[in-house]
Amino acid sequence: MRKYPILFYLSLAATILVLYLLFTGSSVLLFQIIESPYLPAGTPLTWLGLLSFTTAFLLGFSGLKSANSKAIKFCYMLFKIAFIMAILWLPISIGLSGNLSNSFGEKTAFQGGQLAMKIFWVNSYLPVVLPLISTLLYLIIKLIKKFKN
């Protein structure tokens, strides 16, 4: 974070804003950006939220990449994987749903169907869960090292 404090705080602010909009179910998420094909504001805002969330973790724990412990480097690698998944979230989600609003139905075909929806949710949760797991692992490693010394 020392190199990019402004980007870190902007990422944090964007994350908080998007979380607020998502948790309150704001009508802003349904605002129509493009009429045909239908693109609600919620799609790019969710993507922004995933990108800013993973960016905040990546910048907040940037010192981990120069760590001498393989376990701590593994934690940093999980942050990078989450960031890459956040970047790819939009194209993967559009490919799975077959539309820009990421809506799924009871189709028998894969695209837009139930299996695609399950993959979509995994694709949506992993960029959020990986940094949290990585942070927890990092804290456990630091605690173990503290008690060993």
What does this structure look like?
It is built from 4 helices and 2 strands; from the N terminus they run H-E-E-H-H-H. It has 149 residues and is mainly alpha-helical. It has one domain (5-148). It has a two-stranded antiparallel ribbon. It is elongated and about 60 Å long.
Question: How would you name the oligomeric state of the polypeptide chains in this document?
Answer: single chain
Number of DSSP strand runs: 2
The N- to C-terminal Cα distance equals 27 Å
Largest sheet descriptor: 2 strands, antiparallel
Q: What is the alpha-carbon Rg in Å?
A: 18 Å
Strand content: under 5%
Structural class, by secondary structure, is: mainly alpha
Short description:
With 149 residues, the chain is mainly α.
Summarize the topology.
Elements: H1 5-24, E1 32-34, E2 39-40, H2 42-60, H3 70-97, H4 114-148
Antiparallel strand pairs: 1-2
Helix pairs in contact: 1-2, 2-3, 2-4, 3-4
Give short descriptive properties of this protein:
149 residues; mainly alpha; 2 strands
